[in-house]
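Reviewer comment 2.1 asked that we show a complete input and output for one of the modelled complexes. We chose the zinc ion case, as it is the one discussed in the main text.
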Amino acid sequence: MVFETLERRIILEGEIEAITPLHIGSGKPEFEEGVDLPILKDPSGSPYIPGSSIKGKVRTEVERIARSSGMFVCNAPTIESMCGSRSTSEEQLCIACRIFGTASMKGGISRASKVKFRDALIITQTTLMQRAGIAMDREVGSVKAGALYTIEGVPAGAKFNLEIVAENLTDEEFKILKSALKSVEDSALGGHSSRGFGKIKFNIKAVKVRTANYYMGKEVEQIIEW
Ligand SMILES: [Zn+2]
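Response of the prediction step:
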């Protein structure tokens, strides 16, 4: 059995800055007046980036970096091929499953993510932009090939708040998480990167380390370099 203890919680605070326009779609066909491919908005109509979208992208980069350094990495998110389904102990999980969790088929082990990504809410006053495109050989969302369509986006310069909370990561796990965040900046977040969308920057402003003793008032939090 696994005893849950809090050894070290690392809280990254900062911003996600759109360097190019950003298109985070809802992932399902939608219709909005005047735009074919709308971005995701909260009930008040403000754009946001779901924590799950950031997590998915960061996990993908961790997997790519780990594979290129010769580590075994399973094929998430297909449950049958994830570590949880073929493992009987923690030690058998790949680094991506150790950090971001794994689901499992019957008889395997499931682990929750050690890293939580909060939804990133927009903090700048922003007028959304649209970019036109012509659907090529395949359908783009609900748009037919050959048709003109419009992609909605958050313009370059927009900023979102960022909070990532990581618990009990080993030094190796923290190091690869940090590398993955850098790699996401050179890759893309969200859709339509081939049309120039999705370049972002993580502006990390504070890295706080808190232990169980901090919560019990016995020590202060540590601020570490990013
Ligand atoms: Zn795995």
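The radius of gyration is 20 Å. We note this here for comparison with the apo prediction described in Section 3.2.
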